[in-house]
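Meet today's protein:

…
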Amino acid sequence: KKIDFFAYIAFILIYVLSFLQPQGIIVEYLSEKAFTVLVQCAPLYLIGICINDEAIVDQLHKMSIVSILANVVFLFFVGSMWDSSEGYMSFSYYLLPHICLVVLYALRYKKIEDTFASILGIIILVFYGSRGPLVGIAAVFIVYYMVYKQYRHKILGRVGAVMIIAIAYIALIGIITFVTPTVSGFIFNTKFVDSIINSNFFFDNGRNDLQIIVWEDFLSSPFSVRGFASVRGMLNSYHVMFSYSHNIFLDMLHDFGWIIGGFEIINCLYLYFIGYFRATKIKVKGLILALLCSTAFLKLLVSGTYLLEPNFYLLLGVCVSCARTNNEMRRVKQYA
């Protein structure tokens, strides 16, 4: 629809206007990331609007299985030579949406190939991933059995299922983790295993201190509209080598202030909520759930920035499509 292209053009305009920020480091950063944001990320919103068909979700599911298997083959042949110490986080987060979708298919349809691919995916995340994606997989299990699944005895059934799944999941992770040191011939350079062994699983790597700095700077001028990547320039003035606060809400507030930033946050949450509950096709609902657990309610709350997250835009598009389609169906029924 025209409004969707208008939204995309408005996004580009805001991006261009963000170059007016006085700090040179911001202009340099926006120039460097322009292709990624405007060509690789933002257009996925328009693509997401077209994904309201179970056949498309089925194709995405098949591609996710292929992606998991391809990564298994890659790691099998070069895993011992690949130094993942620098890229473990990006690698595991890029793979996470694929694993989440396959896990949902495994839970829903109980096919052997989905279960097998899900286990392989979890093993990859343990050996070559970070902590966040494994929490995302756990969130898929919990949300599925609390919201997605129907039980005869709803409360006891859901709570019992979540407890069983949690115990089984922790046991699986524990087995894989403590078997790792006995595996010869491979070098598993993983932050997750190291954090377990060194008993610092809950260490935040300084994110809390970083977010305090961003929050205090935001409070110094809470209604200012600074533009995209404003956190980058502010942190540079503190000689902190980070580009964002690792929290989507804090980034939005700092970029656009209480009024516009607050509206963005409320609008995103509303679209996620209304899109999920208005999705009439079960597989589309599953795709939204997979993206929620891997992007919106997990990754962007602890890592990365919404500006450079492709699945953030894709999720918004899918949710808008579901909400819009449902409204159109109700209007047709009303005037039929």
Residues 248-278 form the longest helix (31 residues). The radius of gyration is 21 Å. The chain is about 75% helix and 0% strand.
